[in-house]
Design brief:
Elements lengths: L1 E6 L9 H10 L2 E6 L14 H19 L2 E4 L11 H14 L3 E4 L7 H16 L3 H4 L37 E5 L8 E5 L4 H15 L5 H15 L4 E6 L12
Parallel strand pairs: 1-2, 1-4, 2-3, 4-5
Antiparallel strand pairs: 5-7, 6-7
Helix pairs in contact: 3-4, 6-7
Length: 251
Protein backbone atom coordinates (compact mmCIF):
# COMPACT_ATOMS: atom_id res chain seq x y z
CA UNK A 1 0.00 0.00 0.00
CA UNK A 2 1.18 3.53 -0.77
CA UNK A 3 -0.03 6.45 1.35
CA UNK A 4 0.54 10.13 0.63
CA UNK A 5 -0.01 12.68 3.40
CA UNK A 6 -0.60 16.13 1.86
CA UNK A 7 -0.46 19.17 4.13
CA UNK A 8 0.15 22.91 3.88
CA UNK A 9 2.88 23.50 6.47
CA UNK A 10 5.50 21.48 8.30
CA UNK A 11 3.86 20.42 11.60
CA UNK A 12 0.41 19.84 10.02
CA UNK A 13 1.25 16.13 9.89
CA UNK A 14 1.17 15.83 13.69
CA UNK A 15 -2.46 14.72 13.48
CA UNK A 16 -1.62 11.56 11.54
CA UNK A 17 2.00 10.82 12.51
CA UNK A 18 1.06 7.73 14.50
CA UNK A 19 -1.00 6.35 11.62
CA UNK A 20 1.78 6.97 9.09
CA UNK A 21 4.40 5.39 11.34
CA UNK A 22 2.19 2.35 11.88
CA UNK A 23 1.77 1.84 8.14
CA UNK A 24 5.48 2.35 7.54
CA UNK A 25 6.28 -0.29 10.19
CA UNK A 26 3.98 -2.68 8.29
CA UNK A 27 6.05 -2.13 5.17
CA UNK A 28 3.79 0.32 3.36
CA UNK A 29 5.31 3.17 1.32
CA UNK A 30 4.69 6.61 2.80
CA UNK A 31 5.27 10.03 1.28
CA UNK A 32 4.92 13.25 3.28
CA UNK A 33 4.10 16.27 1.11
CA UNK A 34 3.98 19.93 2.12
CA UNK A 35 2.54 22.48 -0.28
CA UNK A 36 4.40 25.40 1.34
CA UNK A 37 7.50 25.91 3.45
CA UNK A 38 5.54 27.57 6.24
CA UNK A 39 7.93 30.48 5.77
CA UNK A 40 5.70 33.03 7.50
CA UNK A 41 6.18 31.44 10.91
CA UNK A 42 7.26 34.23 13.25
CA UNK A 43 10.26 32.15 14.37
CA UNK A 44 11.94 32.91 11.03
CA UNK A 45 11.84 36.69 11.39
CA UNK A 46 13.72 38.22 8.47
CA UNK A 47 15.51 35.00 7.55
CA UNK A 48 16.11 34.69 3.81
CA UNK A 49 13.94 32.39 1.74
CA UNK A 50 16.98 30.26 0.96
CA UNK A 51 17.71 29.77 4.64
CA UNK A 52 14.06 29.02 5.43
CA UNK A 53 14.10 26.40 2.68
CA UNK A 54 17.20 24.81 4.21
CA UNK A 55 15.69 24.73 7.70
CA UNK A 56 12.37 23.37 6.50
CA UNK A 57 14.07 20.63 4.52
CA UNK A 58 15.88 19.67 7.71
CA UNK A 59 12.53 19.51 9.50
CA UNK A 60 11.01 17.41 6.72
CA UNK A 61 13.97 15.03 6.61
CA UNK A 62 13.90 14.52 10.39
CA UNK A 63 10.18 13.82 10.54
CA UNK A 64 10.26 11.57 7.47
CA UNK A 65 13.11 9.52 8.93
CA UNK A 66 11.25 9.23 12.25
CA UNK A 67 8.17 7.90 10.46
CA UNK A 68 9.97 5.89 7.80
CA UNK A 69 8.72 7.99 4.89
CA UNK A 70 9.80 9.82 1.77
CA UNK A 71 9.11 13.55 1.66
CA UNK A 72 8.54 16.35 -0.85
CA UNK A 73 8.17 20.11 -0.55
CA UNK A 74 6.33 22.40 -2.92
CA UNK A 75 6.72 26.18 -2.62
CA UNK A 76 3.20 27.48 -3.28
CA UNK A 77 3.52 30.36 -0.83
CA UNK A 78 2.62 30.35 2.85
CA UNK A 79 -0.86 31.90 3.27
CA UNK A 80 -0.93 32.61 -0.48
CA UNK A 81 -2.43 29.40 -1.82
CA UNK A 82 -5.38 29.87 -4.16
CA UNK A 83 -6.60 26.32 -4.85
CA UNK A 84 -6.31 26.96 -8.58
CA UNK A 85 -5.66 24.35 -11.22
CA UNK A 86 -1.92 24.99 -11.51
CA UNK A 87 -1.46 24.05 -7.85
CA UNK A 88 -3.57 20.90 -8.25
CA UNK A 89 -1.63 20.01 -11.39
CA UNK A 90 1.69 20.10 -9.54
CA UNK A 91 0.24 17.65 -7.05
CA UNK A 92 -1.36 15.50 -9.76
CA UNK A 93 2.05 15.00 -11.35
CA UNK A 94 3.35 13.78 -7.99
CA UNK A 95 0.35 11.42 -7.71
CA UNK A 96 1.23 10.02 -11.13
CA UNK A 97 4.79 9.46 -9.93
CA UNK A 98 4.15 8.04 -6.44
CA UNK A 99 0.82 6.36 -7.35
CA UNK A 100 -0.89 6.47 -3.95
CA UNK A 101 -3.69 4.14 -2.84
CA UNK A 102 -4.73 6.55 -0.08
CA UNK A 103 -4.30 10.24 0.68
CA UNK A 104 -4.55 11.96 4.08
CA UNK A 105 -5.07 15.72 4.23
CA UNK A 106 -6.86 18.55 6.02
CA UNK A 107 -10.62 18.91 6.46
CA UNK A 108 -12.59 21.11 4.06
CA UNK A 109 -13.68 23.65 6.67
CA UNK A 110 -10.52 24.53 8.60
CA UNK A 111 -10.17 28.26 9.36
CA UNK A 112 -6.69 28.51 7.79
CA UNK A 113 -7.07 29.16 4.04
CA UNK A 114 -3.93 27.18 3.18
CA UNK A 115 -5.41 24.15 4.93
CA UNK A 116 -8.66 24.42 2.99
CA UNK A 117 -6.85 25.00 -0.31
CA UNK A 118 -4.54 22.05 0.31
CA UNK A 119 -7.53 19.79 0.91
CA UNK A 120 -9.12 21.14 -2.28
CA UNK A 121 -6.13 20.56 -4.54
CA UNK A 122 -5.45 17.16 -2.95
CA UNK A 123 -8.97 16.14 -3.99
CA UNK A 124 -8.86 17.84 -7.40
CA UNK A 125 -5.53 16.18 -8.19
CA UNK A 126 -7.16 12.74 -8.01
CA UNK A 127 -9.12 13.52 -11.18
CA UNK A 128 -6.31 15.41 -12.92
CA UNK A 129 -3.89 12.51 -12.32
CA UNK A 130 -6.24 10.18 -14.21
CA UNK A 131 -5.90 12.03 -17.53
CA UNK A 132 -2.66 11.44 -19.51
CA UNK A 133 -2.81 14.71 -21.44
CA UNK A 134 -3.19 16.67 -18.21
CA UNK A 135 -0.40 15.08 -16.16
CA UNK A 136 1.92 15.57 -19.13
CA UNK A 137 1.17 19.26 -19.60
CA UNK A 138 3.87 21.88 -19.48
CA UNK A 139 3.21 25.48 -18.50
CA UNK A 140 0.37 27.09 -20.40
CA UNK A 141 -1.34 23.76 -21.09
CA UNK A 142 1.10 22.71 -23.81
CA UNK A 143 1.71 18.95 -24.00
CA UNK A 144 5.03 17.71 -22.67
CA UNK A 145 7.30 16.52 -25.49
CA UNK A 146 8.18 12.83 -25.56
CA UNK A 147 11.23 11.81 -23.56
CA UNK A 148 14.41 11.65 -25.66
CA UNK A 149 15.93 8.34 -26.68
CA UNK A 150 19.28 8.35 -24.93
CA UNK A 151 20.28 4.97 -26.40
CA UNK A 152 21.78 3.75 -23.17
CA UNK A 153 24.23 6.64 -22.94
CA UNK A 154 24.83 7.59 -19.28
CA UNK A 155 25.95 11.11 -20.15
CA UNK A 156 23.64 13.96 -19.20
CA UNK A 157 21.97 15.29 -22.34
CA UNK A 158 19.63 18.16 -23.05
CA UNK A 159 16.06 17.20 -22.23
CA UNK A 160 17.00 14.11 -20.24
CA UNK A 161 14.82 15.20 -17.34
CA UNK A 162 11.73 15.32 -19.56
CA UNK A 163 9.77 12.18 -18.74
CA UNK A 164 6.33 11.16 -19.85
CA UNK A 165 4.11 10.36 -16.89
CA UNK A 166 1.67 7.49 -16.86
CA UNK A 167 -1.73 8.56 -15.56
CA UNK A 168 -2.75 7.12 -12.19
CA UNK A 169 -6.28 5.78 -12.49
CA UNK A 170 -6.54 3.39 -9.54
CA UNK A 171 -9.03 4.34 -6.80
CA UNK A 172 -7.61 6.61 -4.09
CA UNK A 173 -9.19 6.53 -0.64
CA UNK A 174 -9.37 10.11 0.57
CA UNK A 175 -8.96 10.59 4.34
CA UNK A 176 -9.30 13.97 6.01
CA UNK A 177 -8.69 15.18 9.54
CA UNK A 178 -11.85 14.78 11.58
CA UNK A 179 -14.26 17.71 11.43
CA UNK A 180 -17.51 17.71 13.44
CA UNK A 181 -19.43 19.19 10.51
CA UNK A 182 -18.16 16.64 7.98
CA UNK A 183 -20.89 14.58 6.27
CA UNK A 184 -18.47 11.69 5.79
CA UNK A 185 -18.06 8.61 8.01
CA UNK A 186 -15.46 8.57 10.77
CA UNK A 187 -12.45 6.26 10.86
CA UNK A 188 -10.27 5.66 13.91
CA UNK A 189 -6.77 4.17 13.77
CA UNK A 190 -5.34 2.45 16.85
CA UNK A 191 -1.88 4.02 17.36
CA UNK A 192 -0.88 2.51 20.70
CA UNK A 193 2.17 0.89 19.06
CA UNK A 194 3.35 4.14 17.47
CA UNK A 195 2.26 6.70 20.07
CA UNK A 196 5.86 7.38 21.11
CA UNK A 197 6.84 8.22 17.55
CA UNK A 198 3.88 10.59 17.22
CA UNK A 199 4.69 12.20 20.58
CA UNK A 200 8.34 12.68 19.59
CA UNK A 201 7.32 14.47 16.38
CA UNK A 202 4.89 16.71 18.27
CA UNK A 203 7.65 17.56 20.78
CA UNK A 204 10.09 18.31 17.95
CA UNK A 205 7.79 20.98 16.56
CA UNK A 206 6.77 22.21 20.00
CA UNK A 207 10.41 22.96 20.80
CA UNK A 208 10.88 24.81 17.50
CA UNK A 209 7.72 26.91 17.75
CA UNK A 210 7.89 27.31 21.54
CA UNK A 211 4.32 26.08 21.91
CA UNK A 212 2.83 26.28 25.38
CA UNK A 213 1.43 22.77 25.61
CA UNK A 214 2.85 19.65 27.20
CA UNK A 215 3.54 16.09 26.15
CA UNK A 216 0.83 15.01 28.59
CA UNK A 217 -1.72 17.19 26.79
CA UNK A 218 -0.80 15.61 23.47
CA UNK A 219 -1.19 12.11 24.88
CA UNK A 220 -4.53 12.97 26.45
CA UNK A 221 -5.84 14.08 23.06
CA UNK A 222 -4.96 10.71 21.56
CA UNK A 223 -6.38 8.93 24.59
CA UNK A 224 -9.65 10.84 24.18
CA UNK A 225 -9.97 9.65 20.60
CA UNK A 226 -9.09 6.17 21.78
CA UNK A 227 -11.90 6.15 24.32
CA UNK A 228 -14.39 6.90 21.56
CA UNK A 229 -13.07 3.96 19.54
CA UNK A 230 -12.53 1.43 22.33
CA UNK A 231 -8.71 1.48 22.20
CA UNK A 232 -6.03 3.12 24.33
CA UNK A 233 -4.83 5.72 21.81
CA UNK A 234 -6.21 6.66 18.39
CA UNK A 235 -6.12 9.16 15.56
CA UNK A 236 -9.41 10.26 14.01
CA UNK A 237 -10.30 10.89 10.38
CA UNK A 238 -13.21 11.26 8.00
CA UNK A 239 -13.22 9.08 4.89
CA UNK A 240 -14.59 10.99 1.91
CA UNK A 241 -17.03 8.31 0.86
CA UNK A 242 -20.79 7.87 1.15
CA UNK A 243 -20.50 4.65 3.15
CA UNK A 244 -17.85 2.55 4.79
CA UNK A 245 -17.12 -0.89 3.39
CA UNK A 246 -19.30 -3.75 4.58
CA UNK A 247 -17.91 -5.74 7.49
CA UNK A 248 -18.34 -9.42 8.23
CA UNK A 249 -20.06 -8.90 11.58
CA UNK A 250 -21.20 -6.16 13.90
CA UNK A 251 -18.69 -5.19 16.59
Amino acid sequence: MRIMAVFAHPDDEIGCAGTLAKHAARGDEIMLVWTTLGELASQFGDTSHEEVTRIRREHGAWVAEKIGAQYHFFDMGDSRMTGHRDEALQLAKLYATFRPNAVITWSDDHPHPDHRMTAKIAFDAITLARIPKIVNEQGGGEPMPPAPDLSGDDAVESGEDVRRLEAWRDPIRFYQYFAPASPYPEVFVDIEDTLETAAAIASYYRDFYKWQWTDELFREGRAGAGRLAGVKYAERFNLRASHLKARDYLD
